UniProtKB/TrEMBL annotation:
Keywords: Flavoprotein, FMN, Monooxygenase, Oxidoreductase
Name of the protein described by the UniProt record: NtaA/DmoA family FMN-dependent monooxygenase
Positions of the UniProt region annotated as Disordered: 437-460
GO molecular function: monooxygenase activity
Start and end residues of each Luciferase-like domain: 27-391
Record family assignment: Belongs to the NtaA/SnaA/DszA monooxygenase family.
The keyword Flavoprotein appears for this protein: yes
InterPro entries, alphabetized: Diverse_substr_monoxygenases, Luciferase-like_dom, Luciferase-like_sf, NTA_MOA
A Pfam cross-reference name: Bac_luciferase
Amino acid sequence: MTRKKQVILGAYLGGVNHHTAWWHPEAGSQIDFSSFEHTARTAERGKFDFFFLAEGLALRERAGKVFDQDIVGRPDTLPVLASLAAVTTHLGLAGTINATFNEPYELARQLASLDHLSGGRAAWNVVTSFDAFTGRNFRRGGFLQRSERYERAAEVIDALRTLWDSWDDADIAADPATGRFLTRPDAGAFRVQGNQLDIHGRFTVPRSPQGRPVILQAGVSPEGRDFAASRSDAIFSPYGSLPEAAEFYKDVKSRAVKFGRHPDDIKILPSASFVLGDTEAEAQELYREVRNQQVNGKTALILLEQIWNRDLSAYDPEGPLPDIDPDPDAPPFIQGRALVHQDRFATVAAWREIAEAKKLTLRELVVDQFERGPLVGTPAQVAEQIDSFVQNDGSDGLIIGSHLVPTGLDEFVDKVVPLLQERGSLREDYTGTTLRDNLGLPALPRNPGRDQGALPAATG
């Protein structure tokens, strides 16, 4: 009998967009450490693989003023994850850090240090940026050309792997008389040269428990898929339903093979929210209530303003879509939010057809198009949805989040996790000692410094 695929589970804590029910009477702080700790401990109790934090490098703006629809502010990612390492034992700790504005030597030190502090549980979600709005916060003094962002990201990842591999597991030995000492004179020596980088020196952090922290990435374009397939250990999928999810899954896995990797060397992970009820009808009613509160009229207009790149405040959210075209050449009206829909005109045309076919108002269209593929139903129904989706190669797992911070994940862990375990799709307990082990990723060489000699940049 073929063994069932094991469902990979990540937990994310919302807080930088309209998906979080900040108005809920049970909602907690987005800044207090207790919120991060509660979510992480709950995820570990549910045998999740990792806890994930997104990050924004600038406060979002609308027409030059800070959004009043966002939950504003969050502590820096790495200190939060380092603190969580002290209150968890097995849970992976994944953080979003920008490869465009951060320097590889510093990144390599921070992530290797987190891997040491956590006993091998660090992961890096690689993101890029090309907008001057974010870039002005950094000494780079502006932005990187869009055409160069993946080039720099690739060089940064390869540089980090070169730095991490400049040490091996046997480079430090203990001497009873003199203390610890280096066994290889050139331990930590590196040189990285490329179009974006030219650095050399000695890396100061010995090889960490994982050797290399896990690399996560998101990408939908052919370039983004190739980037992930060649260098990442996991890619975030935007598809939460079949058959689109299965097509993305198959495409990324086949691209990995073309880069000389095994299909299982990269994991496919979409995000999903959930709403549970004692009956399906109760769950659907609660879902409609939450969804309508998340996307009120003002929120709907703001989400569309990014596509139209215009002030749409004069339009009625309960009326039809704006009858004007987008203005892509105007200065950005919404800043700090990633633009997913690159072709504004094609997006608007498609939305008008959908709104007409489904008889949707402006707000209803936003609800319809900006959903995250929620899991809605009884605990048994949600467990079945997750298991069926993964077993049919829609993904290798899911990154689960709740609209209620920080206690929303408790319900999933208490009611859905046991059902997944009963189905044989989720482990009863952790089996590995590192995040890489628990994700089922391939083992790395123990002595890359000796094995690789000149320490070439990694290619995947």
